[in-house]
Each structure stands twice: as structure tokens, then as C-alpha cells.
Specification:
It is built from nine helices and 26 strands. With 413 residues, the protein is of the alpha/beta class. The chain folds into three domains: 157 residues, FAD/NAD(P)-binding domain, CATH 3.50.50; 127 residues, FAD/NAD(P)-binding domain (3-Layer(bba) Sandwich); 84 residues, 2-Layer Sandwich (Enolase-like, domain 1), CATH 3.30.390.30.
């Protein structure tokens, strides 16, 4: 059996290892267009700050990625898939056959075309290890950086650059930071933590146009007419799945490659997982493309098992599932956390150090989401209840009071 995986990040590597666990003799080929062997992408901001070297981030041979007999080819870009003949056409014109194919090409950052940023030196997105290496090099001659977009990756990059001594300004067009992960009142807590750390955060506006000289960024003008000088601009305003090479194939693409609950596409022997896969949110039933590492790993393992002949259903990807820390504040967001204008039952508690929000179904019988800032204990229990869709009527008071423990769940099963 010839297994081919396009993409060597979380989903692709998890898929390869799952296949090898079940099939010890089939050939497994991973094709990645990056110049680096697979690495742990969430850690690339640490390369900027110098806390980690590129070699510290490698996946192959560590943790769950210890399977043998996997061929990984870097600088290998796939240009076309012919599902009738089950062949891939590479950028160099060579053709590769496959018996089972996994598409895990991930996603790339979106850059507003109106800014003309692609042609301007000093403008970066942070998606790949090479981006981090190039940004770290550029930061050596910079004093000021502006982060356009206040998502998690951009904020971690801001903190890494601040450690190098740069003055940092974050610009977010929404009313508060981390708008995808939390509502404004909660985001304000992270905002305050970043301000205490020395980062300026500007919300409610965006960039009107770049200021440049000699093809180098010198600053930007905001739509509130404020001018921000800088030598570095980092853009983190969203991602889009890498599906362009599928335009002439018969593989169904919606926002990403449409995958069923076995991670299969509409075409026989073709699977998809990770940031490129269009799957269903188990809570809302809506189709989503998720950009989260943990979801990508779960999808990849599920796809690999199915490719190797072990039917395995994927339980679905939460549109929100993130655990992180910014400045001195840890937080966990999962499931449904945006509730304004809905009929979900919500409970919020806060003090000077902690914020907690739990979201129940409209009838109060199931836990649908949770946001913890500061005290993130019990997050694993909440995730279990949300993912399994267990009835929580008898556990509600413990959840609301943040006193739940596993004994309560065993008692009421």
C-alpha cells in the first residue's frame, strides 16, 4: 500500500504515525513544500525571542511522532491531483502515484491586498519557521514594531519582540483583543495584562495605508488619522486554507476540503485533515475550518486509522479550543463562548485575578462552553463534559461554583 500525505505539520505527522501503528509494511511518503523538516508550529515565537532554536522544535522522533519507515521530502510542492489515475503532479513536473492520499496542506495568512504589503520590506506574517527566522534577523535592526491584528499568534509574537527590546504597538479593529476567543469584557483582562507588560494596545481601528520609503516600511496611518512609526509590521488578520491546487480536480471544496466523520473527501481514497479540512462543529452542527493544533492532531490520527483500514469516527472539531498564556495571565477557551444575543444559559464570576464564564444549553441540561482566565483548573473536566455532550443537570452547581471534580462525574453517570 502506498500512502501519500501532502503536508508535514500536525495533521500530516499524526496521520503518518497512526498509519504506521496499524500497517507495518506499507510505504508512507510525506510531501512538504517547506525547507524544514516537520516542526512544532505553536512554538515558533520562541525562535524570535531566542529562547528556542529551530532544532528544538522538530517533531520527528519525539513524543507521539516516533514511528519509523516514514519518508519525508522537503521542498516538495504538489501542483495537481489526478484522482482518476491516482497520481500527483509535482512542481518539477514529476508524477507520483498513490493508493491512499491525505490532504493536510494547512492554511496561509491573509494579507489585505489594499496595503500593498507583499512588496514592502519589513512586513511579515508568522505562519512558518522561516518567517520566524527572517523576522528575528530583521528585528536586530529595528526599534519599533506594529502588530496588525490581536489574535493569539500575533500577541505571542509581540511579546517575543518585546523581549528583544522593541517598542510594540498592537492594532485591532474590533473593540477588544482576542475577538475570536472571547467577548470584549473578558478580552479587556488580557488587554490590561499586556499593557502592564509594556505593550500599547489600540482597539477599534485599523490601518488606512502603509508608510514606506525605498520599498521599506516606515510606519502606518490608522483610519483614526494617527500615525505609527515602525520598522516592522506583523500582519495577523486571519488565514485561508491552501486549496488552490485542487481547482481542476473533482475533490469537493467549500471553505476547505469537505470531509465526513471518517475524514474522507467525496473522492475514493482521498482524505483531508487539519487547517485545510472543512468539518462539523459537534456543538452547533455548522461546517467549520479550524486552525487549532490539537484539532489537527485528532483529525490526522482519525484519517490515518481509516486509511489503514481501521474504521474510526471523528467526533468533530470545536470552533474554539485554546489554552495559552499571555504576559502573566493563563486562559482556556473552549466550545461556545460568544453568547450575546443568544438564549444560552450563562454564568459569569470574576474577581481581581480571575474570570470565569460557563455556558449551558438553553434548557440548562448540557455544558456548551467555558472560558477561564487566571484560574484554569478543571478545564480538562469541562472539556470532557462539553465534548461528550453529557447531561449536567445534577452537576450544574459544582460547575458554576468551580468546585467540580471527577468524583462528581462518576457519581452521576
Amino acid at each position: 500500500m502506498r500512502y501519500v500525505i501532502i503536508g508535514g505539520s500536525a495533521a500530516g505527522m499524526a496521520c503518518a504515525n497512526a498509519i504506521r501503528e496499524l500497517d507495518g509494511s506499507g510505504s508512507i511518503l510525506i510531501l512538504t513544500e517547506e525547507p524544514h523538516l516537520p516542526y512544532f508550529r505553536p512554538m515558533i515565537p520562541l525562535v524570535i525571542s531566542g529562547k528556542k532554536d529551530a532544532s528544538d522544535l522538530k517533531l520527528f522522533g519525539f513524543g507521539p511522532y516516533t514511528a519509523t519507515g516514514i519518508d519525508i521530502r522537503i521542498n516538495s510542492r504538489v501542483e495537481k491531483i489526478d484522482t482518476a489515475s491516482q497520481t500527483l503532479t509535482m512542481q518539477n513536473g514529476n508524477e507520483l502515484p498513490y493508493d491512499k492520499l491525505m490532504i493536510a496542506t494547512g492554511a496561509r495568512p491573509t494579507i489585505p491586498t489594499r496595503l500593498g504589503a507583499k512588496e514592502t520590506k519589513g512586513v511579515f506574517t508568522l505562519r512558518f519557521l522561516k518567517d520566524a527566522e527572517d523576522l528575528a534577523q530583521r528585528a536586530k535592526s529595528a526599534k519599533r514594531a506594529v502588530m496588525l491584528g490581536a489574535g493569539l499568534v500575533n500577541l505571542k509574537t509581540a511579546l517575543a519582540l518585546m523581549e528583544l527590546g522593541l517598542k510594540i504597538t498592537v492594532v485591532e479593529r474590533e473593540t477588544e483583543i482576542l475577538p475570536r476567543l472571547m467577548e470584549p469584557d473578558a478580552g479587556a483582562r488580557i488587554h490590561e495584562a499586556l499593557s502592564r507588560a509594556g505593550i500599547e494596545v489600540i482597539t477599534g481601528c485599523t490601518v488606512s495605508h502603509l508608510l514606506s520609503h525605498g520599498n521599506k516600511v516606515e510606519g502606518l496611518l490608522l483610519d483614526n488619522h494617527r500615525e505609527l512609526p515602525c520598522e516592522l509590521l506583523c500582519i495577523g488578520t486571519g488565514i485561508q486554507p491552501n486549496v488552490e491546487f485542487l481547482k481542476d480536480s473533482d475533490i469537493h471544496v467549500n471553505h476547505g476540503v469537505v470531509a465526513d466523520h471518517f475524514m474522507k473527501s467525496n473522492v475514493a481514497n482521498v482524505f483531508a485533515a487539519g487547517d485545510v479540512a472543512d468539518t462539523r462543529d459537534p456543538l452547533t452542527g455548522k461546517r467549520i475550518v479550524t486552525g487549532q493544533w490539537t484539532n489537527a492532531v485528532e483529525m490526522g490520527r482519525c484519517a490515518g486509522r481509516n486509511m489503514a483500514g481501521r474504521p474510526t469516527e471523528y467526533s468533530g472539531a470545536f470552533s474554539i479550543l485554546n489554552a495559552s498564556q499571555l504576559a502573566d495571565v493563563p486562559f482556556v477557551a473552549m466550545g461556545i463562548v460568544h453568547t450575546e444575543g443568544t438564549d444560552f444559559e450563562t454564568h459569569e464570576r470574576s474577581d481581581s485575578k480571575n474570570y470565569r464564564k460557563v455556558v449551558f444549553s438553553s434548557d440548562g441540561s448540557k455544558l456548551m462552553g467555558s472560558l477561564l482566565i487566571g484560574d484554569i483548573s478543571r478545564a480538562g473536566l469541562y472539556r470532557y463534559l462539553i465534548r461528550e455532550g453529557l447531561p449536567v443537570t445534577k452537576l450544574k452547581q459544582e460547575i458554576i461554583n468551580h468546585s467540580l471534580h471527577y468524583g462528581h462525574i462518576l457519581r452521576d453517570r
